[in-house]
Every structure is written in C-alpha cells, then in structure tokens.
Amino acid sequence: MLQSTQHARGESPVAVIGAGIAGAWQALTFAKAGHAVTLHERSDSAMTAATSHWAGGMLAPWCEAEVSEPVVSRLGVRALDLWRGELPDTPFNGSLVVAHARDRADYERFASMTSGHTRLDAQKLAEIEPSLEGRFRDALFYPGEGHVEPRLVLPQLHARIKAAGGTIHYNSERQPDDLDGTVIDCRGLFARDRQPQLRGVKGEIIIVETDEVQLSRPIRLMHPRWPLYVIPRDGNRFMLGATSIESEDRGVSVRSALELLGAAYAVHPAFAEARILEFGAGLRPAFPDNLPRIAIDQNRIAVNGLYRHGFLLAPALAELTLAYVQRGVIDNEVMQCA
C-alpha cells in the first residue's frame, strides 16, 4: 500500500553506492528526474566481481509467483513497463516451462500456482520453438515475460546514466557516511556492516556455445530441487542456471555442474556437443524473508535484499525510492523507516 508522509522532500544531490543492477537503476532514475547523481563503484568498469555479472537476467514475474510473495509479482509486472520504456529493444518473447514425464506432478503444481500462461500442445510448442519439436508433449507459455543479457545491459544502463547527466566513479569504494546529500546504498552483501541480517545465496551458472540449437526465449525445466533454465544469449551462447544454494562459497560444485549440464541435455541432446565457455557463481543478497527492502534513515536509504530477482525488481524499486525522495510517498510492503 502506498501512502504519503506529511512533507515532501526537496531535490538534493544524490550519491549511489554500487553500480550493479540495483544501483544502476537508482542512479538512472534519479538522473532522469533532474537530480545531480554520482554513482560510486568499488570495482572497475568490467564489473566482473558484481553479483549482476553472474545473473540470468530473466524478467519473469508470473513464473516467480510459484515461490515468491505477491509483492514480487506486483513490482515485477511494473518493472516490465520500465524496462520497455528505457530499453525498447529488450526481448519480450515470453518464457516456457516444460517437464519430462517423471516431473509431471511438479509441472502441474507450477501451473496451478502461477498465472499469465497458456498451455501449448506439442505442435504449438514446435511452432514457436522449432528446436523443441518432438521433445515435450506440452508446455506452459508466459507470453508477457522477457529476458535481458546482464553483461550487455549493465553497460547500456551506465551509458544512459552519463547521458542523463550523471557521473560514475569506478574503483571508488565508499561508505554512506563518507558522502553528503541523499545517499542510496546498493552495496549488496557489502552492506552487512549496516544490515547484518543479510546473507548470501549462491547461484551457479554455466555458459555454453552451440549453433545446433536455436531458442528465442528462456526455457524453464522442472527439477526435483529447483527449476533449471536455459537462457539464449547472443552469439549462439546459452546460459544454464541457476541453482539456489544456502552457501557463501563462490565455487561451482560438481553436483551442480552435472545437474545444469544434464538439464541442458534434457532440453535438447545437441547440447551434449556444446562447447563450455565458462563456469561461475554469484552471491545474491537476501534478507531472512527473501523479500526486497528499502530502509530509510533520514537521507540515508538502503536498497537491498533483491535475492534472485535483481534484474526483475531493480527498476520498480528505483521508482519507489524516487517517489519517496521527491514526494514522501511510502510503499508499506517494501519500505522501512527508522
């Protein structure tokens, strides 16, 4: 629920700490609204150490309803419009959920717990994804969903921040108290000095390359422990992911590698001949309830806990933060005030 405080806040210089997906959207949103924005990033412009570097980039609010609270879907649906408005070339080809016979019970449960989908028989599935012809007897199709390639989109957002008048300082490690004006802390797990309840949830990925499979949208395959994804990327590459493990180890386990590669093979046997380009893992910042939080303490604002929904939720959270700073509007499901 949205409510307005008694007083609206005037415009002021804004400093954002952290240039991952959460911080990039905060900086861009405030810069486009006319604020003088400075974005500080502790690493270099390649951002290879950022959680965003290892993200899948799925924009799937209806699919996420299976395991997430309604607030995630609410903000996610809003964020789709923000992605379309800022980056019109964002692919919105929908997403597919499929299962083999042994996982039919999980498939039907997934269908019952989510909305926004239609059921496709084998023929209609083959029409929209010819590479999957004969592979599955049916699928759930979520036509409103999209996906982005994080390693391409993040530099685009950074460029748009600069075009909107913002400044970015890489190799610039800052604490909230180091900076004047309104400070928005998007440091992820590095913010545990102020938010000790944060934990890291490991997500492992594998990137492979093959020209024997063509996909236009993410494929989510039912799995006994977690859904596994095959997400198309440019250059005949595919991201296989993503596990969700309660661990802050950054390595990829043999078990996870076997499951991810097995999932790809289960989607299409041609993946057996694909070339493995990369293994990697990122630590997603999460609160105990796995829900995002905007914590407000006067002119210090912390945006964190995006969990596995960073690319989905970041635009909507930035919009909420701007509404608070400019007009004092509070979203009671997300915001906490000191």
A few lines on this structure:
Helix content is 27%, strand content 26%. With 338 residues, it is of the alpha/beta class. It folds into 2 domains: 181 residues, FAD/NAD(P)-binding domain (3-Layer(bba) Sandwich), CATH 3.50.50.60; 136 residues, 2-Layer Sandwich (D-Amino Acid Oxidase, Chain A, domain 2), CATH 3.30.9.10.
The chain-level structural class is alpha/beta
- Coarse shape: globular
Mean pLDDT: 94
Please state the CA-atom Rg, rounded to the nearest Å: 20 Å
CATH topology-level fold name of the largest domain: FAD/NAD(P)-binding domain
Sketch the topology as an H/E string, one letter per element: EEHEEHEHEHEEHEEEEEEHEEEHEE
Main sheet record: 8 strands, mixed
Can you count the helices?
A: 7
CATH superfamily of the largest domain: FAD/NAD(P)-binding domain
What does this structure look like?
The structure is a single chain. The chain has helices at residues 21-32, 70-86, 104-113, 122-128, 150-163, 254-267, 310-327, and strands at residues 2-4, 14-17, 37-40, 58-59, 95-98, 118-121, 138-142, 146-147, 167-169, 182-185, 199-209, 219-221, 228-233, 237-241, 275-286, 293-297, 300-304, 329-331, 335-337. The protein folds into 2 domains: 2-84 and 148-196 and 289-337, FAD/NAD(P)-binding domain, CATH 3.50.50; 95-143 and 200-286, D-Amino Acid Oxidase, Chain A, domain 2, CATH 3.30.9.10. It has 7 helices and 19 strands. Helix 1 (21-32) links the parallel strand 2 (14-17) and strand 3. The chain is α/β, with parallel strands linked by helices and 338 residues long.
